[in-house]
Design a protein that fits this description.
Pectate Lyase C-like, 2 domains, 28-stranded parallel beta sheet, 46% strand, 34 strands, single chain, 396 residues
Length: 396
């Protein structure tokens, strides 16, 4: 009897599953079913908007972009043009699924392709397996001429929280502004395994506000550019209270600039250019390879930092980079010294000075391999401990 009941129960479960509607199928919205047509000159903006709206009204799901090129345009004051509802995945078939700006983007500003709703917050968003093309024709940044606010992803809202956004396997290129930008009221942002190319301003731009936190950028890279980028591959500025940022295992043809964060780890990246960060607290920079490009000045510059561990990095300066690592603070603009600093186990090569300290406090230097005519230059520094100190190495 027990076996019979068990068998009947199992059959009932299988029948229920067979007749139950599939949630994933019921909540998948193919943009072509809403009127989008690939590989022609017609504008597909309204069709894709309608697919996203239907997904939001259904409580979430997947909006699917099939292979082909779909044209987007800014009609009024949309910022962003495509608003992502909560609990929604926007996905395609990889690089073959292209969302592309109308060429008119080159004549005006504030085109933002995809982001959070203007009139409300958003949560649980995934954007993956897509190719975003900004249609930019400007070759470099010229102030007042280049439309610098035209971007691919634009997650920003001064009034509402944007939470739990994941961007994966997205190729973003040809934007006169930033390929991807995250800022006010963003929390739990993950950018993983994305490819960038031909950005005029920044590749991945991150800002924040009080309460913004928990950003991860990993496994991303920028390809060789045919335009002249004016900014960094990865850039953090206007942090305004941003906490807990991890930038790891990225390949950057341009610099990493990251400032104003409490609790940041920059780890395992390969960088051609610089690492620069001002105004950080509780900062860890380790296991990076930084090779100077044609930029002048120090290869790594860290200012007004309270709590810094700089460990196990390889820093290679070029002829235009007289200093390998420069830690500084205490100026007429900011009285915060470069404070509570550990510099250990790095390999630093420079044409003049390996490590330069200026306006620092409580610095410990040990176990580094320093190749330069002057290993250490110290100015306005209190509480310096250097295991390899030799007479004449400290002062200019």
């Amino acid at each position: 009897m027990h076996k019979l009941i068990t068998m009947n129960y199992a059959i009932a479960i299988m029948l229920a599953l067979a007749v139950a509607p599939s949630t994933s199928q019921a909540n998948e919205f193919n943009i072509t079913q809403f009127g989008a047509t690939p590989d022609d000159e017609t504008d597909d903006t309204s069709a894709i908007e309608n697919a996203l709206t239907a997904c939001g009204e259904a409580g979430g799901g997947t909006v699917f972009i099939p292979a082909g090129t779909f044209i987007l345009s800014r009609r009024n004051s949309e910022s962003p043009i495509l608003e992502m509802p909560s609990n929604t995945t926007l996905c395609g078939e990889g690089a073959a699924s292209i969302l592309k700006f109308d060429p008119a983007v080159n004549q005006s500003n504030f085109w933002r392709m995809i982001g959070a709703p203007v009139e409300g917050g958003a949560a649980n968003i995934v954007i993956r397996d897509l190719h975003l093309d900004g249609s930019n024709t400007h070759q470099k940044y010229i102030k007042g001429e280049t439309p610098e606010h035209n971007a691919g992803l634009w997650f920003y809202n001064k009034s509402h929280v944007i939470e739990n956004v994941t961007v994966m396997n997205v190729l973003a290129e040809n934007f006169s502004g930033d390929c991807m930008a995250f800022s006010y009221n963003c929390r739990s942002i993950t950018v993983r395994d994305c490819v960038l190319r031909n950005f005029i301003r920044q590749g991945i731009q991150m800002g924040g506000s009080p309460g913004s936190r928990d950003y991860l950028v990993t496994g991303c890279r920028d390809l060789e550019h045919s335009v002249q980028p004016g900014g960094s591959t990865i850039h953090v500025e206007h942090a305004r209270g941003l906490t807990n940022v991890i930038i790891e295992n990225n390949q950057c043809r341009k610099s990493i600039l990251a400032g104003g964060v409490d609790g940041m780890i920059i780890r395992g990246n390969t960088v051609t250019g610089k690492i620069v960060g001002n105004g950080n607290s509780n900062l860890v920079i380790r296991d990076n390879v930084v090779k100077a490009s044609s930029n002048t000045g120090a290869v790594v510059q860290l200012g007004y930092t309270k709590g810094l561990i700089f460990r196990s990095n390889i820093i290679e300066g070029a002829a235009s980079n007289p200093v390998g690592l420069y830690v500084w603070g205490t100026s007429r603009y900011n009285d915060q010294p470069g404070e509570d600093v550990i510099i250990s186990d790095n390999k630093i090569t420079a044409t003049e000075t390996a490590i330069s300290l200026n306006g620092t406090k409580n610095v410990r230097i040990h176990g580094n391999l320093l190749t330069a005519p002057r290993r250490l230059l110290e100015k306005r520094t209190e509480g310096l401990t250097w295991d390899d100190a030799e007479s004449g190495d400290f002062k200019d």
